[in-house]
Each structure stands twice: as C-alpha cells, then as structure tokens.
Amino acid sequence: MAHYKGAASEGSRAVNLMKQRERQKEELELLKKKIAEVRFLLYNFCACVEYHQLSQQEHGTTKFEVSDKFATSFDVVEEQLKSSTAGLLTLEEMKERREILVKAREQQVAAKLANKSAVESEAKKQHKRPGGGALSFAMEDEEDEEDEAPSPPKPKKKRLGKNPEVDTSFLPDRDREEAERREREELRQSWVAQQEKIKAEEIEITYSYWDGSGHRRHVKMKKGDSIHRFLAKVLEGIRKEFTELRAVTVDNLMYIKEDLIIPHHYSFYDFIINKARGKSGPLFSFDVHEDVRLVNDASVERDESHAGKVVLRTWYERNKHIFPASRWEPYDPEKSWDVYSIGDNKERANAK
C-alpha cells in the first residue's frame, strides 16, 4: 500500500521550524545566564555597601566620603576582573574570582584607612604644645625667659601726606563737582526765569491784511505768543470787515514778514532772542516804516522793518507769480541774509 508523502516544500518547512525552535532555546538559556550574572552583581553590591557602612561606623567617615570611596573601589574591582579574565568561564568560576578581588580590595582600603588615621594622630601630637610638666622644667623656662633681652619694637612706617603746593584741580573731587552742579542749576533756573519774564512782556504788532492792497491794523500780543495765536486774534478782529474771511479758519491764513513765509509754530520770542534776519529787514523788529518798494524806488535798499502781511492761502496761490508774492519764500532758520534786499530786479541777499 502506497503512502502519501506530500510535496518537497513541506519537508523543508518542517526542518526550518525545528532549527528555529533550537535557536530560541539557546537564546533562552543565554538570557537565563545573564539574569543570574546580574543577580550575582547585585548581591556583591549589597555586600560591599554593608561592608563600607561598617567601616564608616568604625572610622567615623561621612556618608559622602563612603559613597565616593565605594564607587572608586567598585570600578577598580571591575577593571581587575576584566583584565584577569580570558576565555570562557562558568558562572561559578566568575563568582569565585570576583569574591577574591573584592576581598583583596577591601583589605587595601582598610590598610589605607588605618595608615591615614595613624598619620593624622601623629600630626596632632606634633602640633600639641607641651603642658605644665614638672617644676624643674618650669623653673628653667622662666630663667631662660629672664636671660633673653627684649627685642626692640619695629619702627612704624610713616604715611606720606599730600603736598598742599601741588595743583589738584584736575583730580576728581566730589564736593567740588557737587558745588559746580548746584551753581549750574542755579544759573539755569535764573536764565529760565529771565526768559519767562521776557516772554510775558507785551509788544504791539503792526500788520497789514493784504488782498492786493494793504489794510493796516494794530494788535497787542506777548512775546511768547505763537504766530498761530497771533493769526487767531487777527482773524477775530477783522472777520466782520471782510466778507471773504467769514468762513475761513486760522489754518487758511499766512503771515509774511520781510518776504518770508513764517510757519505757525514759531513765536515772536524765537525771532527776538535769535535776532533773526529776513530778506528785506529784521524779523525781530515790529516797528513799522513805509514800504519803500511801493512808494519809492525799489532798487534802493534801506535798513528798516516793514509791516507783516496777513493773507489768505487761496489769494497767494492765485498771485504767487506776481510781485510782491513772487518774492515770498518759506522761512529757513539755517539760512542767513547778509544784506537786506528790497528790489525785485537786484537780489543782493547772500544765503549762507
């Protein structure tokens, strides 16, 4: 009777499964050996800790020192075990060698501790001073002290003093610097008070509302007032006289002084304190002379102040190409005018 043996692949599969099971058994045995070695190391570790605790109680060392010494001893034992082991050893042989090395290391540590304590006790004995002793020795010591002559006192070092004739003004002096600071502060406060007093002084400003012809008026202001405040007061005074001013605001007005368009944020004080100069006259003087460009020869230059003009911006935009608006330009504090010029054809003002 014939038997069914199956395909050849089934036989090779069975062989592979058997080999795989054998490898798993070998790995399991190896793992068991490693676990046993770890348990052995833990056992030795606990034994070493117990030994060093007993050594600590005997020699009075601190916990910190014991832990450090134990760590060092454990590392030394491991190094010696690695260097002395060659080839394959059984677990029992490994345990025996480790126990031998641990005992040898413990003996070395104990010998070092004993040697150290002996050295320390010897050093303490050497540093101790002799006590009272017998009377004969005490009498001899007293006689020796009487025979010794007292040593002369050491001369004290003389401290060098300051030379009053040397100029020390260049050296830092806290008191002098504080006095100078107070003096500067007093001068500053005095100057500020003086300037505030100047700003509070009243001046009479002569101006001309200009719409192609002049309409001269007068208004009293303080030197510290700004051009914006001045134009607001002017507009309040002449609004009812001129219909074109009834709907305008201060921002629609311009102030022209000596052919320069003055920005609204400047004050009369700024021009007075700096003695500012314009193209055709001083900006710091508000007394009025006749405008010689309109009534006399425009080529003649005179050192006199002219009434500032208040104009609408719309009028200026329409007529800025016509004299006198063609000569007007924005005020630049960095530009200075050496020579006043009132002629339209002869421009003799040099701007620095």
Automatic annotation (TrEMBL):
Region (Disordered): 114-190
Keywords: Coiled coil
Transmembrane regions: none
Keyword Lipid metabolism in annotation: no
GO CC annotations, alphabetized: nucleus
Coiled coil: 14-41
Protein name: Protein FAM50 homolog
